[in-house]
Amino acid sequence: MALLEVKHMTHYFGGLRAVHDYNLAIEAGQIRGLIGPNGAGKSTIFNLITGVYTPTEGEITLNGVNLIGREQHEIASMGIGRTFQNLRLWRHMTVLEHINMANYSHITYGLIGAFFGTPARYKQEAEIEEKSHRLLKLVGADKFADQKVTNLPYGILRRIEMARALAVEPKILFLDEPTAGMNPEELKEMMSIIRHVHAELGLAIFLIEHRMKFVMELCERIQTLVFGEVIAEGTPEEIQNNPLVIEAYLGKDLDT
Ligand SMILES: Nc1ncnc2c1ncn2[C@@H]1O[C@H](COP(=O)(O)OP(=O)(O)OP(=O)(O)O)[C@@H](O)[C@H]1O
Ligand SMILES: [Mg+2]
Known about the structure:
CATH topology of the domain at 4-89 and 156-248: Rossmann fold
Bound molecules: adenosine-5'-triphosphate, magnesium ion
Mean pLDDT: 92
CATH class of the domain at 4-89 and 156-248: Alpha Beta
Shape: globular
Largest sheet: 6 strands, mixed
Number of helices: 10
């Protein structure tokens, strides 16, 4: 059985069919990619699997357990961590505070501890800080822990979002355009961070990307989505040589 399985998923926004008969099976530890032109439905697929929207039709299971109808936080704690296409960071909070906040979902010291500061609370708070630093180190952002996010470059903010997504200790990590807005130097760094996180944590990764070279180098299998439908699925080599994919990207350089 695959770790994550999606069968015959279709979704309508009013009269617009954004996703049609979508199927996916991701095994534990795989790195998978989803590509396609703007508006193809890529982010919608992420949003459907992670509970932002409920699909009009279809099945979604994680380790055989149904995900449809569950809240976003529930799906996250079941094992799917994600980042968003647009950064969702709070201007006045420090980097560490962002990661701590994500970690607080595991807190159990209770209401009395929250008011009076019991030893259990102090111990858990220390553990959470320690875990946050560990996650920030993993994405190479620990040295920015005490800075406010407003002061940091885009490439670093994307890493912080990734660290935050890892706080739920996911079995699978969804990255929606992890290199958006990055310069070539930041892009290279992101590639090695994803590889490092994958090697250290052994999780599966499912990423949406527009930068072909990045996807082709990282992913073992890739789906190409056009107008809500998968027109091709295969290895990077198969995808690069697929006439339908080449046609969908007509005029765009598949080497960049
Ligand atoms: N909440 C929504 N309500 C109505 N229509 C939506 C909504 N979200 C997305 N859409 C529409 O669904 C289609 C797919 O959008 P989606 O954001 O999934 O595309 P995408 O492949 O992620 O594109 P991009 O590469 O630009 O991020 C588009 O036509 C979009 O306008
Ligand atoms: Mg998108």
